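Question: I have long wanted to understand how a fold can be written as tokens. Here is the record:
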Amino acid sequence: MVGRRRRRAGDHLSRSDELRGLALAGIGVALFSFSLPATKLAVEGLDPWFVSFGRAAAAAVLSVVVLRATGARRPTRAEWRGLGVVAFGIVVGFPALTSLALRHETSAHGAVVIALLPAGTAVWAVSRAGERPSARFWAAALAGLAAVLAFIFADGVGKAGVSDAELLVATVICSLGYAEGGALSRELGGPQTVCWALVLSAPLTFAVALATAPYHASVGTNAWLGFAYVSTVSMFVGFFFWYAGLARGGVAKAGQIQLLQPLLTLVLAGLVLGEHVSPFTLVCAVAVLASVAGTQRARVARVSAGGRPGVDVGDPTG
């Protein structure tokens, strides 16, 4: 299975492992890049609560098939706790908040706001691993936040104010789910991690999906196509590659690949949805990407089991 490899957090990565991880993460990012445009298509014809929970319910059915077909072992008690964090971040929190936000915002706008995902993932990753980011790391992360806030206020508040808050909270929650899932994938494997998280969430996702399903409403083809994409690709197949990449290449290192996602989303939003992407939007997106690149290059000191600073990871000038 993709990404099934046991490795402790402190193990050194070989160059071949790192390259495989970056390649797998790259496939995941390419698949995720259409998530916001597909969600936008879906919420134009479907209830946003059905879109966010129905996609997870559909993916949970596929997860049961995969888990039974692969004979996956049951997670340990500690792993179930981690899976709860993953489910909160990627199964419930992020889909629900982005679906609500995209009722009033374009997917191009959303792509810029959630461009902080790689920085957020790195923050959660170093936090979980007991690492100490340098001042340069935090300065770059704050610069990215400033760029996003500048974009939000320049683009106008009002009805967009609530949507932007939803997108920012979604970014924080999703980055936590990414970091936790990447760590769990070292033991469970990428596909198994997302499948168990979806199964764990199934009672909630099925209940909400059934309560908000469009039983008698007329729904357009485009809305159903968008829903089908986020259910099978964004919520399921994409995570096979993404978590496998994080497990093999390292959460912070492989997270660099996600720098490509906002720009890919902007291109797809323009081509598929015909959304206008202004020069200012592109400038803000590039500014955020630059700040996130800074966090990836900054020095991070790892703390040993005894609590002493270990080797530094990242740019030695950081």
Notes: The first helix runs from residue 15 to 32.
